Amino acid sequence: MPRIGLVFASGLHDFFNSGTWQVIRNLALLFVVIFWAAAAYWVYKDARRRIEDPWLVGMATLLGAVVPFVGPLIYMLFRPPEYLEDVRERELEIKAMEERLARRDLYCPVCRAEVSSEFLVCPVCTTKLKQACSNCKAPLEALWQICPYCETPVEPVAVEFPTFEVRPPRRRRRSE
Known about the structure:
Blueprint: H1 2-16, H2 19-50, H3 54-66, H4 71-78, H5 84-103, E1 106-107, E2 114-115, E3 131-132, E4 139-140
Antiparallel strand pairs: 1-2, 3-4
Helix pairs in contact: 2-3, 2-4, 3-4
């Protein structure tokens, strides 16, 4: 029995002192170094996309490079949640919406043509946009009860709804 253990230990000793083990060890170390460099490079690229301050980008890269494998994990926990490009795009969209609201462009609900707030009818598709005051002919908003220009009470407009034929409910047939 002790001879088997001795043969096994001798075999392990021979393997770890052989050229094959040295090649395997060197390849493993090479892959570890390549992975470490790739992780540090990823931290650098990601930090440039998320952080404006070059000093902070350098510190994040240093953290990713100096503390192998743990540095990129720490960076991932504390990095900004959005890319700078997304932040700028969102700010531009908000600015464009604010400008549109400031201009208060009105559009026809039917043909989407630009109309003025004083128009009673769309000049493109002739859709009625507003009711005119019966006294001064000024355009009135739909919810107004009185004309703000001449103090004439607004007469409610009768809206005609389509009539539908009412049918009696169908009887179900019993299947026998």
